[in-house]
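Question (not urgent): is this output format expected?
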Amino acid sequence: MATPCDRRVDALRLQRLRWRCRRGMLENDLLLARYLDARGDALTEDEVGQLDRLLDLPDHDLWDLLAGRAAPADPGLAPLVAALAATPDLAYERTRGTPS
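Got this back:
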């Protein structure tokens, strides 16, 4: 039997999460949108909670995590950060360095 954390996210919650993923830094916008396009329908409530915690970070701190320049202070977020960093086209973004 599925626990509450294993349940999939409903469409309205996913839409709200997509809106929250709109950031002030284009690189974060693109990466988060690609991740949600690829994985959004399969996200669990637990994963959404983790993503919400990441979205509380300032844009540059979030980008440092996603670009591999920093590790999350909360080790529980490491799997999600790794999944986000594995999103296609991030390797290209990493070669560009920190956005200005």
